[in-house]
Amino acid sequence: MAGQLAGQPILILREGSQRTRGREAQSNNIMAAKAVAAAVRTTLGPRGMDKMLVDSLGDIVITNDGATILKEMDIEHPAAKMIVEVSKTQDDEVGDGTTTAAVLAGELLKNAEELLDQNVHPTVIANGYRLASIKAKEILATLAMDVRPDNRDLLVKIASTAITGKGAESSKEAFASLAVSAVLAVVNTENGKNTVDVDDIKVEKKVGGSVEGSQLIEGMVIDKERVHTNMPKRVKDAKILLLNEALEIKKTEVDAEISIKSPDQLQLFLDQEEQMLHDMVNKIVASGANIVFVQKGIDDIAQHYLAKAGIYAARRVKKSDMEKLARATGAKILTSLKEINESDLGKAGLVEEKKIGEEAMTYVTECHNPKAVSIILRGGTEHVVDEAERALHDALRVVGVTIEDGKLVAGGGSPEIELALRLREYSATLTGREQLAVGKFAEALEIIPRSLAENAGLDTINMLVDMRSQHERGNKTAGLNVFKGQVVDMLEEGVVEPLRVKMQAIDSATEAATMILRIDDVLSSKSAPGGMPPGGPGGMGGMGGMGGMEGME
Ligand SMILES: Nc1ncnc2c1ncn2[C@@H]1O[C@H](COP(=O)(O)OP(=O)(O)O)[C@@H](O)[C@H]1O
Ligand SMILES: [Mg+2]
């Protein structure tokens, strides 16, 4: 890269660096971002298709979830990565609407390009988009309806909308109801404000059975069995010790030498080891604990003594499970047996080993903290259980968000059509070129109902025209029944979503689109990972089994 000053070329970038500027840089970025959006667009809605993703090790993920698809795709192009970020932000903030956000961002950029072609300056477009998004959120707020935590039916509808088309289809109602019960169990109310942390809900996956066999347990379910068959299977009034230390003697270092000269000495050495283990167990017995969860290992001899003392013990318990057990039972996680205190023990009414299918698990119920709940997720194969888990995640998050905000909107493309209509009216009140940008923003929103129709194999133009005319007549919740191919009232259909999902989708899509638009210079050093690939625009590495880049317009 060389500039020209008094005939003397000035090198400002290291040799081998790449640089694209101006309109070319914009086109590159927009094309890459659009390609990513197009890749997930066919999954949108209840009748969207699934993607099969194959990673470099041959592991397969089959999913309909936008955030998961984009996360698994090995994307290199920097602008394309920004679209991936959009869906990640959406997932972090609200847990649903990840495809919507990415698709909307792609469409905003596509429409911006049309304006760029008409020589509208990117800054003007970005400003117009910003104005439009503020207005859109204002209008959206007026479309929202109140929902109270005790309106269980409505919450079930929200959960069920979130999981429509996500593999849990056959048992949608039961699954949605399970999600609602779980979330209601963990709601925190402080000063009249509800908060939900879905991490309080422990999801334990178990392959086998069917999704309908999934169940809610009031308490913790730990995927571990007791270590010794002589231990009790069922312990009432459990006093629980959580230990992050191995109940083992640290093995002597390989190069340390112990010189044992006679059989007596060896026996002495072994006796001593056994004594140390016995002492450890005695400390536990003295504390009054009758249940021990150990994050590390338990020596055979220690197991024997624990069983003799009538203590139920499980080993190699996951760190995250230890933390959840601590919260559920009020126990402290001890790092050493030295400082053991009765007050460090947790409490639960019942701890027992139960079988799920073939495998034994530990159930900790009637916990000290009644808000501890677990869901045991069943499904025929690993792929089914994994996709069910993603569906459950969406359901839990949307119900949680709705309980926190108390606001919902109709789905099925109805809010987007209404917003498009009203934004067009709003654009008429503006002057200058921002008006054009607001108009394009309105148009971009219609990509959502359009994709819902397209993915259902419906006549897109007819459906859109029908929806628009219903909204013009004041039916604000008219949307698409994708199964019947009719425009109907989405509230009556029970297709409802949290307000926050739509708000966030508009926010993050606008933000990413305007950020990409403002870039007019891409400098990438040769070796930087994630730099502009030599292939030029849309360079995406290893798309796995995605079948390349379909739907590039
Ligand atoms: N039964 C239904 N009928 C019509 N539209 C629906 C239905 N259920 C969900 N939708 C719509 O599908 C869209 C969400 O699709 P989804 O594939 O879950 O993508 P996202 O990742 O954006 O949540 C929303 O616009 C929602 O309103
Ligand atoms: Mg969804």
Automatic annotation (TrEMBL):
The keyword Iron-sulfur does not apply. SUPFAM superfamilies: GroEL apical domain-like, GroEL equatorial domain-like, GroEL-intermediate domain like. The keyword S-adenosyl-L-methionine does not apply. CDD domains: cpn60. One of its GO terms (cellular component) is protein-containing complex. Keywords: ATP-binding, Chaperone, Nucleotide-binding. It comes from the Archaea. GO terms for molecular function: ATP binding; ATP hydrolysis activity; ATP-dependent protein folding chaperone; unfolded protein binding. Pfam families: Cpn60_TCP1. Belongs to the TCP-1 chaperonin family. This is Thermosome subunit.
